[in-house]
Amino acid sequence: MKNSPIRNAPPLWLWVTLTALPLVLTFGFSSQDAETSGSLSLMIVKWLVSVFPPLSALDAEFLHVVVRKLAHFTLYFVLGCGLRGLSTYQRRFPAVPGVIASGAFFAALDEFHQHFSAGRAPSVFDVALDTCGVAAGCALISLLFLLLTRRRAASA
């Protein structure tokens, strides 16, 4: 990583993939109408209950909401990882606040886009949850970079 301060870190293509993939998936999911989106998450709930039978004791609607919210958090967690990795290639903006602000912007833009899908409505809660996912992903990669830097310094 010639321009990155972190030596022996994953290559640029990994950070680009971890940034682009959740953005593309999120755009696709947000383009689905409410019925299609709901049936996809219900299919995941049914699969989870078949794999983990104790989950059947929980309310199906509760599981449905949990799956949907975990999908939000997970996609934006991956986005936060990718953006934080990409941020090592620039020096103009503070990395962590820039990553979180970018993630919040993408989350708000996604909710705005979702507004145009039949039966779907934007949610401020989802923007907040997505932003928390970005922050968590950013924190994980920042921690890994810190550990790599300390390890390198200790071995030097």
Report how far the terminal alpha carbons are from each other: 19 Å
State the helical fraction.
Answer: over 70%
Largest sheet: none
Count of discrete alpha- or pi-helical segments spanning 4 or more residues = 5
**Percent of residues in β-strands:** under 5%
What is the assembly state of the chains in this entry? single chain
Over all CA atoms, what is the radius of gyration?
18 Å
Class inferred from helices and paired strands: mainly alpha
**Sequence of secondary-structure elements:** HHHHH
Any idea how many domains?
A: 1
Number of strands: 0
Shape annotation: globular
Please tell me the overall pLDDT. Answer: 90
Q: Uncertain runs with pLDDT below 50, 5 residues or more? A: none
Description:
The protein has helices at 12-31, 34-51, 60-87, 95-114, 124-155. The chain has 156 residues and is mainly alpha-helical. The chain has one domain (12-155). 24% of the residues are buried. The mean pLDDT is 90.
Q: What keyword list fits this structure?
A:
5 helices; mainly alpha; globular; about 75% helix
Can you describe this structure in just a few lines?
This protein is mainly alpha-helical and 156 residues long.
Chart the SSEs and their pairings.
Blueprint: H1 12-31, H2 34-51, H3 60-87, H4 95-114, H5 124-155
